[in-house]
Amino acid sequence: MDKNVVYKSREEDILMKEIASSSFITLEQLGDIKKYYDESVPYHNFLHALTVAERVLELWDEEFNIIEIRSLFLAALFHDAWHSGTAEDLDEFRSLDIAFENIEKFEQKYNYEWIDFSVVRKAIIGTVFKNRSKNKDKYAQVMADVDIHPIGLSFCEFLYYADFAMALEIGQSKPDGQLDIEEWFSNISYFKFLMWVNKEIFINKNVRKKLLNNSLSNIKKYLTIPQNNYCLEDGTSVKEVFAFWKNNDATLEEFSKKFFK
């Protein structure tokens, strides 16, 4: 299996339009931020940044004021800037520097007001240091949790937005850039780790009730897929689902209709 993947441009377009309709940002401004992301990266790309930003908008309630939400929102859009997608050492630290520098430029270019840069910095740092048990800062905790939001959505969205893309990135970090999907399913150390820490995921209370309430059930379902044939409940092999996802510019809706009727 090679390391290339068809970028989900059509799903990106859907999310850009939905986010632009929020009045927090324009399509032009989103297009300006997109230039800081590499479409050849399977997971840490602009589609991921858009999904994190979309989830931030769902947090706007009595817990956060408008300045906090706008700051978290902008942090989400920039947080993985120029991520290599290969799990390189210090990769996300580079993203932190690139993001903070260019958020200032973005603010000045578009006169993007009502931003608290201390919130922005703490939020992005939360996506770099994901030790939820030790990080006590509210904004860092929230962004760290929102950053892994796909595991708390439906099982279908978990596979579409996170699992297969992360599998490819793990493969790209190997010398030959290869990863067999069966190898990924037999290891999946990241998700096993999330289950192992005190048998629960450290989730900030502000996020748990809205975004990650299904996290444990989705991971348990994922971990209990029969290892002998790697099939989903309807008998479809995981390798078949993976091949379709990897080779097609399918939207989430199309992916869902095909495999999760």
Question: Characteristics of this structure?
Answer:
Catalytic domain of cyclic nucleotide phosphodiesterase 4b2b; mainly alpha; globular
Which percent band covers the strand fraction? under 5%
Largest sheet: none
Number of helices: 14
- Output the radius of gyration: 18 Å
Q: Specify the CATH homologous superfamily.
A: 3'5'-cyclic nucleotide phosphodiesterase, catalytic domain
Low-pLDDT windows of residues? none
Gist?
This protein is an all-alpha fold and 261 residues long. The protein has 14 helices and no strands.
Explained architecture:
- With 261 residues, this protein is mostly helical.
- It has a single domain (9-259), classed as Catalytic domain of cyclic nucleotide phosphodiesterase 4b2b, CATH 1.10.1300.10.
- It contains 14 helices and no strands.
- The chain has helices at 9-20, 27-34, 46-57, 66-78, 91-110, 117-128, 138-147, 155-172, 181-187, 189-196, 205-208, 215-223, 238-247, 252-259.
- α6 crosses α7.
- The protein is globular, with a radius of gyration of 18 Å.
